[in-house]
Write a structure and sequence with these properties.
Number of helices: 11
Shape: globular
Radius of gyration: 21 Å
Largest sheet: 8 strands, mixed, barrel
Length: about 290
Amino acid sequence: MKSLAKAQITPSIDFRKYVQRFLLKNKTVLHFARSIALKNIIAQEAMNTCFQPIYDVKNKSTFGFEALNRPIALKLFQNADVFYDFVGHTNKVFLFECFCRNISLVRYHKKLLDFAEAKSSALFLNIHPNVLLDKNYHSGETLALLKTLNISPEQVVFELTERSAVSDFEEFARVLSHYRSQGYRIAVDDVGSGYNSLKTLIYLKPEFIKLDRSLIQDIDQHSAQQQLLTVILNYAIESGTKVIAEGVETKAEYEFLQSAGVHYAQGYAIGRPNENLIFGKNPCDE
């Protein structure tokens, strides 16, 4: 009986694998299937939200957390990067961004109820620049939600990935000025990854510059990376901007960044993303 049952189950497993391979090869069908999956993810709130600590290097304390949202199931996407790349090429960017922002804030609020020590911590929210430019986006809706959750706009940092190109810098700078007047702060992500231009930093004047992991990895061993870091730090000092090093994974990297004068650090050596709010640690204390 056991062998018979196994024989009956195997074809169904093979068939599912066949369907999955078929979808991955047929771009039109795959796009349609992924669109349905995205719609279901939003409707069912099928996203995991984790929070990664951002550590104040000078004060040796946790400054804030970055909210990271990942889909629970990725059957039609090889990984989270593929998923987000797909979202960026659909007409659901605005809807999805608002959805992610709202669940991040709501879930952050729930975690704060159990972790009062983090009540005043900053919360970094990833956001596509085009959403802020979209005339359909009403910032008052986020303000209303923040008021309901008892979170101050001054705690919220909109983190803009530099891979999302900004074409009209003057208009975007005007829009950011509007959000700043409400208390929000701005961070530019992925600086040093090769996508960034000096124009981005000059026009947007972010409160935070987040250095890409490609610049931070083994920085204690490579003079070219160290020289670029020095240039960015000098600019930050002149412009009143704070620098956050992302992807810090070793004690040696952290010690170099600390000696160089980097303001904040984020990465596995500080603390991994977690569904709960967990303060970061100083790698030098281990």
